[in-house]
Amino acid sequence: MESLQLLIGAAVGIGFVHTLIGFDHTLPFVVLSRARGWSLGKTISLTLVCGLGHVLSSVLLGAAGIAAALAATGFDGSAGHGWISARVGSFESFESIRGDLSAWALILFGLVYAAWSLARRRRQQRHVHEHDGVVHAHGSEGASGEHSHHDLAGGRSLTGWSLFVIFVLGPCEPLIPVLMVPAFQIGLWAVVPVTLAFALTTLVTMAVVVGLASWGLNLGRFPGLEAHAHLLSGLAISSSGVAMLLFAI
Asked: Global pTM?
């Protein structure tokens, strides 16, 4: 039981630190929330849904590995431990590939979002209306903001789904080799509490960090940057993907 308690404590600590330093877990939600004017509730809800997909993808992979180990060794527990331990390197390599794909997906998503922002802004600047025989051009983000809301409404669901797919693609690198495999060596029953401790810590940390950052960012007003909020959001998301590749976070 002492070894299980140590593993659960490690799962909590690793989940917290891994999420805190991996700002790709939080930054996209914070910047998009500000740019798109999401409510705090919507922002945290989307964060939790994406975080759940992020964790479950690695949990399912680890569970599949454990099931394969038991099946390959005739459901003999001790033999299964050796089988899966011998293949930890394969799991790490696969998770590393998933991590790179996720990073590139974030980079591409951010760049596409930034390009959309630039194209949309230029379209607004060329937008021409005729009123009472007078022709004039103006951006569609005027005082009423009706065009802006209309333009953004269609992209909200696409943005959310894109983030969800990216987070499902991204692995929780330490979960399988550092937590699930040692827990399996204690016993199959030990995998559940260790995995739950990591998953809950990750989700809570994501929600708290995103909530606090979004709330703090919404307190400030940056008139000079507001017009470029979407462009800056896209570049920030791409930067988080670059940081994933450079620093393996």
From this structure: 0.82
Contact 22, 210 (CB under 8 A): no
- Going along the chain, which residue ranges are E strands? 128-131, 134-137
User: What is the Cα–Cα distance from 66 to 164, expressed in whole angstroms?
Assistant: 26
Query: What sign has the CA pseudo-torsion 225, 226, 227, 232?
Result: positive
Local structure of 134: helix, strand or coil: strand
As a whole number of angstroms, the distance between CA 53 and CA 59 comes to 10
More confident residue, 240 or 122: 240
pLDDT at 155: 54
CB 37 within 8 A of CB 208: no
The whole-number average pLDDT for the span 233-248 is 89
Residue-wise DSSP of 198-249 = HHHHHHHHHHHHHHHHHHHHHH---HHHHTTHHHHHHHHHHHHHHHHHHH--
Q: Report pLDDT for 156.
A: 61
Q: Which of 249, 241, 242, 234 is nearest to 31 (CA)?
A: 234
The confidence band for 70, taking pLDDT boundaries of 50, 70 and 90, is confident
Separation of alpha carbons 165 and 53, rounded Å? 8
